[in-house]
Amino acid sequence: MLKLGEYNMLEIVREREQGIYLCDEEGDEVLLPNKYVPEQFQIRDVLKVFVYLDSSERIVATTLEPFATVKSFAYLKCTNVSGIGAFLDWGLEKDLFVPFREQSSKMRVGSWYLVYVYLDEETNRLVASSKTNAFLDNSLVLLSSYDEVDLIASHPSPQGWNMIVNQKHLGLVYSDEIFQKITPGDQLKGFVKKVRPDGKIDLTLQRHGFRGIEPNAEQILKELKLSGGFIDLNDKSDPEDIKEVFQLSKKSFKKAIGSLYKLRKIVIEKEGIRLVE
Q: Residue 250: which H helix or E strand, with range?
C-alpha cells in the first residue's frame, strides 16, 4: 500500500508521456511527473519519493522534500486563508491545509505556526493542526533522568518554555535553566531532568551534574581560543555576564573552569581566566 505523507521506496515499472509510473510491493502504482523524473533511469530502478495528493486530490509522487511528514511537527508559514481554512507552505507545490476547527487561533497570511501533520481518516487527506497538545501523550513516558532528547520549542509559559519531546511528549524547561534565546519552532537537543509521577517531564538544555562538566569545559576552551587566550570572567563574576558570554549558569561555569584548572588547561586570575600555552 502506498503510504500517504511519507517517503516510499518504489520501483520504476514503465515510462509514459506524462512521466514514469512507480510501483510498491503490493502492485499499487503512482505517477512521478516529468519535472521530477531523474535524467538517467532504467526500468526496475528503485526511487525514494514522497507521496501525497495533488491539487486535484490524486495520489502523486515527488522527489521534493517536504518540511514535514505525516505524524510529525513542523513550524510553517501561512500562505493563504480561504473560506474553509488556511494553507501552509510545507515545501511542496500544493500547500498544506489547516481546517478552521484545527486552528488554536485564527491563522493569518505571513505568520508562522507550529503544527502537527496527520492523515484525516474521513477524507483521506493530509491536513495539519495547530492544536499540538492534542497529539502529545504523557501517559506512558519511557524516559529516565539524564536521557538526551530531541526538542521542538512549542510556546512560552510563566514557568519557562513548553517543549515537544521526541515528537511524542510535552515537557518543560524552567526559566532558570534557559541561557539562550528561544523562539517557537526551534529544534534543540536537551536532557531529561526528571519524569514526575504524573508523567510531566522536567527538562534542561545542558547536561547536569558531572555529565555536564566536559562539554561545558570544551565550550569554554573554544571561547578562550577565539578570544586570544583570555576572557575577563571568573568564579567571582556576575551570573548575567557569564550567561551572556557562555550561555551557562554560574554554577555550571564554576564546575567547568574548576575541571579545566585541575587539568592545567587554564589559570584562574583575579581579572579572569587565561589559557595555558
A: helix 250-262
Give DSSP secondary structure letters for 69-111: -TTEEEEEEEEEE-SSEEEEE-SSSSPEEEEGGG-SS---TT-
Residue pLDDT, tens place only, 31-49: 999 999 999 989 999 999 9
Domain final position from 17, 41, 62: 62
> What is the model's pTM?
0.78
Q: Is 213 helix (H, G, I), strand (E, B) or coil?
A: helix
Give the CA angle between residues 140, 141, 143 to the nearest 5°.
Answer: 155
Domain tally for the chain?
A: 4
Question: Does residue 200 share a domain with residue 214?
Answer: no
Q: Which of 141, 127, 151 is nearest to 204 (CA)?
A: 151
pLDDT given for residue 210 in this prediction = 47
d(Cα 192, Cα 173) in Å, to the nearest integer? 10
CB-based contact 11:46 (threshold 8 Å)? yes
**CATH code of the domain containing 108:** 2.40.50.140
Residue indicated by cell numbers 519557562: 160
Per residue in 87-121, pLDDT (tens digit) is 999 999 999 999 999 999 999 999 999 999 999 98
Mark whether 120 and 173 lie in a shared domain: no
Look up the domain containing 247 and give its range.
210-275
